[in-house]
Design brief:
Elements lengths: L3 E3 L3 H11 L5 H19 L5 E7 L4 E7 L3 E8 L6 H7 L4 E2 L1 E6 L6 E7 L7 E6 L2 E2 L3 H12 L5 E8 L1 H10 L4 E7 L2 E2 L5 E2 L5 H6 L3
Parallel strand pairs: 1-11, 4-5, 4-6, 4-8, 8-10, 9-10, 10-11
Antiparallel strand pairs: 2-3, 6-7, 12-13
């Protein structure tokens, strides 16, 4: 599917399988979300540009590559997206973090915005929007739209689990945005939950019901 990247590294798939299990504790679920996010961030940042500089090693002077170009911004969709932030920050500690607050109306399944706070230079950064689940795609479509309305152009979307319906919705609304997922699942059920999925990621991350 177009700009969809399914990251099928064995370690990612192993950890996703553990997250799916109902027996996985809140503590372990949270740790797995962080670990998978770190592993996925390697692929999401694969195309970052490099610049060559001269350095001094203990042996001699040489030319070496350093990351150049745009800085990174991480934008979790509240609240479940928070569970993915630390994994990315472990890999890119200088990244700045913005937040977009959306919730899904239980009847219409449409996203409702209640909060948006971004770094002042967000429009100058490569922004990675993170949310564990890409179900209907409504929240992701809205979050990306909010970023574009604020002048942001270089945007990537990163999800742990996605449904085909959500992927199609994001691609239709934002064909310029690359989508990175750890698993592309079967479908949505009648309640707009991903099948087989892993349940409500926010509740499982924070131990709520």
């Amino acid at each position: 599917m177009g700009n969809l990247h399914v990251l099928n590294h064995p370690l990612i798939q192993h950890k996703v399988s553990m997250m799916r299990m109902t027996s996985t504790s809140t503590k372990d679920f949270r740790a797995l979300a962080e670990e998978i996010s770190l592993l996925m961030a390697y692929e999401v940042t694969r195309d970052l540009p490099l610049k060559e500089e001269e350095i001094e090693t203990p042996i001699c002077r040489t030319k070496a590559n350093f990351v150049a170009g745009r800085s990174i911004g991480v934008v979790p969709i509240l609240r479940a997206g928070l569970g993915m932030v630390n994994g990315i920050l472990t890999l890119v500690p200088n990244a700045k973090v913005g937040h977009i607050g959306l919730y899904r109306d239980p009847e219409t399944h449409k996203p409702v915005e209640y909060y948006c706070k971004l770094p002042v230079d967000a429009d100058q950064r490569t922004l990675i929007v993170v949310d564990p689940m890409l179900a209907t795609g409504g929240s992701a479509v809205a979050a990306i739209r909010f970023l574009k309305e604020r002048g942001c152009k270089d945007i990537k979307l990163m999800n742990l689990i996605a449904a085909p319906e959500g992927v199609r919705a994001v691609m239709a609304a934002h064909p310029d945005v690359d989508i990175y997922v750890a698993s592309l699942d079967e479908k949505l059920n009648e309640n707009a939950y991903i099948v087989p999925g892993l349940g409500d990621a926010g509740d499982r991350l924070f131990g709520t019901k």
